[in-house]
Specification:
With about 425 residues, this protein is α/β, with parallel strands linked by helices. It has two domains: about 70 residues, no CATH class; about 350 residues, Ribonuclease Z/Hydroxyacylglutathione hydrolase-like (Metallo-beta-lactamase, Chain A), CATH 3.60.15. The protein has 14 helices and 21 strands. The protein has a nine-stranded mixed sheet. The chain has a seven-stranded mixed sheet with strand order 12-13-15-16-17-18-19. Helix 1 runs antiparallel to helix 14, helix 4 crosses helix 6 and helix 6 packs parallel to helix 8. The termini are close together.
């Protein structure tokens, strides 16, 4: 009885097969998503959901970032310019910078701090440190220190200190000007006025503007239009406020009311519209304060018929104040009539956001898509874009399909290991000789 010998030719054939299988494994790893798209083997998506790759390859992106109980939105415009709206809490700054670096963003063209709350502007300080910012749009909220109005001292970096002093001493309207003493807002203001960027080798200090009703920013196939805060209607000179800061003094809702100084604006890109209202409210929930005015209500009352028509039927609305019971009123929702609603919110938060009453009001609108509600803590970063002439979105952390699935990479590895074992490792059977 003798053992059958393996020839060199057989070894070459087997090694060639192994190499081919290995190459298929590598290809399946790098091109799995394309192969799945071609063969229609993707995981089951929601009605308007697509792969993240498709939104990245589109002409623009509006990305609602998952920053927990806070707000931050990144926009990549068709002309390549970028915008960052808020930055979540301070701890979110590093994550946002990493997100920007992953997308090769080293300059922000427009930074909007919707209002002074730390869950909206905290992370922007880190962005200032790591990324160049060309234009800063800030609220008419004066940064400084002091426990009360009599002790209030404006931050030495606060360019609007003189404006506040004027209202305080001349008009006596200081109680209607929001003053903010938080260290986070003070640091944001300091960074904003010390920020600079380089263009053609020249150092240029960033432009700073107080946003107001009527402010517009236009570009290639996009526009940003502000509808609130409303400009003050007293006898004060409403020309540009200072040499360094553009814009107008805006209506205030109490010296410490930060939420109702929020930017309310519409972003239009390629015919799709995205509506932002910061933390603006229509009520405080206090029955003893029924006569008080609130920004969301005043904003709605100020609109002309043409403006109402322009704002109606928006594509995406990010719920006011993280879905608070006292924001996103029935009147506002009826006007906006959105297709999609994003709620930027932390899981199991202490504020009962989004509130059930708010969700019920949203549900009564007419144009909601089947998969209209997107919660940041469930979805992760939520990206909207126009794909094949239709508005689509992708998410990062959406709950996976419960069916048993296997990736192309995993399948390739199984085939490779199995066939390698058969082709190379299994010894040939012995032949008996009689």
């Amino acid at each position: 009885m003798t053992r059958n010998k393996i020839t060199k030719r057989e070894i070459k054939i087997k090694l060639t097969i192994v190499c081919v299988l290995l190459a298929l494994v590598v290809l399946s790893f790098f091109f799995a998503e394309h192969i799945e798209d071609f063969l229609n083997l993707n995981e089951t998506y929601a009605a308007n959901q697509v792969s993240e790759r498709k939104t990245k390859d589109s002409k623009y992106e509006v990305i609602y970032l998952d920053v927990g109980q806070g707000n931050s939105t990144f926009v990549r415009f068709p002309d390549g310019k970028t915008m960052l709206i808020d930055g979540g809490n301070t701890v979110c700054g590093t994550e946002i910078v990493e997100f920007l670096k992953d997308r090769n963003v080293d300059k922000i063209d427009y930074m909007i701090a919707t209002h002074a709350d730390s869950d909206h502007i905290g992370g922007l300080v880190k962005v200032f440190e790591m990324v160049e910012v060309k234009n800063v749009l800030r609220p008419f909220q004066i940064a400084g220190t002091g426990d009360n109005a009599d002790e209030f001292v404006a931050n030495e970096s606060e360019d609007l200190a003189g404006v506040y002093e004027y209202y305080q001493t001349v008009t006596g309207n200081r109680s209607k000007i929001s003053r903010v003493t938080s260290s986070v807002y003070n640091e944001f203001v300091e960074r904003a006025y010390s920020e600079y960027y380089f263009e053609n080798g020249k150092k240029i200090f960033s432009s700073v503007t107080v946003f107001y009703d009527g402010l517009k920013i236009s570009g290639e196939n996009y526009e940003i239009e502000f509808f609130a805060p409303l400009v003050r209607d007293d006898e004060t000179d409403l020309s540009l406020m200072t040499e360094r800061t553009g814009g107008f003094a805006t209506v205030g809702y109490g010296v410490t009311d930060s939420n109702n100084n929020s930017a309310i604006f519409l972003l239009s890109i390629f015919g799709e519209t995205f509506f932002f209202s910061g933390d603006a409210a229509f009520s405080s929930g206090d029955k003893n304060a029924e006569n008080l005015s609130f920004e969301e209500t005043d904003f709605l009352s100020s609109l002309t018929s043409l403006e109402r028509e322009h704002i109606s039927n928006v594509s995406v609305f990010i719920a006011g104040h993280h879905g608070s019971k006292y924001s996103s009123s029935a009147a506002l929702l009826k006007l906006l009539n959105p297709k999609f609603v994003v709620v930027s919110v932390g899981k199991n938060n202490d504020y009962d956001h989004p509130h059930s009453e708010t969700l019920e009001r949203i549900l009564k609108t007419d144009r909601l898509e089947e998969d209209y509600l997107l919660l940041s803590y469930k979805a992760g970063n939520i990206t909207f874009s126009t794909i094949d002439s239709n508005l689509k979105y992708s998410v990062e952390l959406a709950e996976k399909d419960t069916r048993l699935t296997i990736s192309w990479y995993e399948l390739g590895m199984i085939i490779f290991i199995s066939l390698s074992y058969i082709v190379v490792l299994v010894k040939p059977k012995q032949k008996r000789q009689i």
